[in-house]
């Protein structure tokens, strides 16, 4: 009858033999063999991690055959689950692939652009994608090109108005994107939704949201005039914001379907009363902050 000590030794030897056999079988796979051959780690320790190494080998092979991040077949797109040697220990970590690193490098400029309820596609807007075949867009495009060229020389912003879907927001977003590559920060704010969101954040991050928009180097107030006019939104939010940016000489941009005359009429009428004086205060600040260009073009939506 075997002693307990002999039995334990037998079981240990049997386990080691099974682990070794599994490891040797795994070595028949070319990707597994290639992967472990590059590890400076003793075999007697590697055999304990055979199943994890086999999982790594699959992802390693996927990466070897991959041509772009869009072709990634790993569990986490843009990452590979691979072994890492740390002295005398072995760990397994998700490592960023070269294609994801390239993509992050190419898109890091987007971190300079903040958005509030703005379509994601506008973050991808680029000057090279602007349609220059419509002569009705020439004035706006020329203005934007000049702004980029002369950025930083006490420039005004732009009040760009015209028909729905003419690409007003895209033009401003493309300009912001171009400047974001120069590490210039901007915010694109869909004004009607921003006001609703701001009002709902009184007890949380109201000040943080408002200050961020008020002080950002470049600001787009998108679709002004589409909001339901309230005295609070007009007098407590918009007016001080514009006054601050005017005093600080921060370029401010607007898109709207309305010219300034009709915008004034909209801002005059709240649910409680008509106040042309306070509406005119807004218009006066917009006029001081911006050049105004009308752009009537085909609906691109």
What does this structure look like?
This protein has helices at residues 4-26, 30-37, 43-46, 50-65, 98-107, 138-149, 168-180, 191-199, 206-215, 231-247, 260-268, 276-289, and strands at 79-86, 89-96, 113-116, 157-161, 186-190, 218-222, 252-256, 290-294. The chain has 301 residues and is α/β, with parallel strands linked by helices. The chain has two domains: 4-96, no CATH class; 106-294, Rossmann fold (3-Layer(aba) Sandwich), CATH 3.40.50. The strands form two sheets. The protein has a six-stranded parallel sheet with strand order 3-5-6-7-4-8. Helix 2 (30-37) packs across helix 4, helix 10 runs parallel beside helix 12 and helix 11 (260-268) packs antiparallel against helix 12 (276-289). It starts with a helix and ends in a 7-residue tail after the last strand.
Number of domains: 2
Measured between the Cα atoms of the first and last residue, the distance is 86 Å
Helix content: 40-55%
Shape: elongated
% residues in beta strands? 5-15%
Key phrases:
301 residues, alpha/beta, Rossmann fold, 6-stranded parallel sheet, two-stranded antiparallel sheet, 48% helix, 15% strand
Structure, briefly:
With 301 residues, this protein is α/β, with parallel strands linked by helices.
Write the layout of secondary structure elements.
Layout: H1 4-26, H2 30-37, H3 43-46, H4 50-65, E1 79-86, E2 89-96, H5 98-107, E3 113-116, H6 138-149, E4 157-161, H7 168-180, E5 186-190, H8 191-199, H9 206-215, E6 218-222, H10 231-247, E7 252-256, H11 260-268, H12 276-289, E8 290-294
Parallel strand pairs: 3-5, 4-7, 4-8, 5-6, 6-7
Antiparallel strand pairs: 1-2
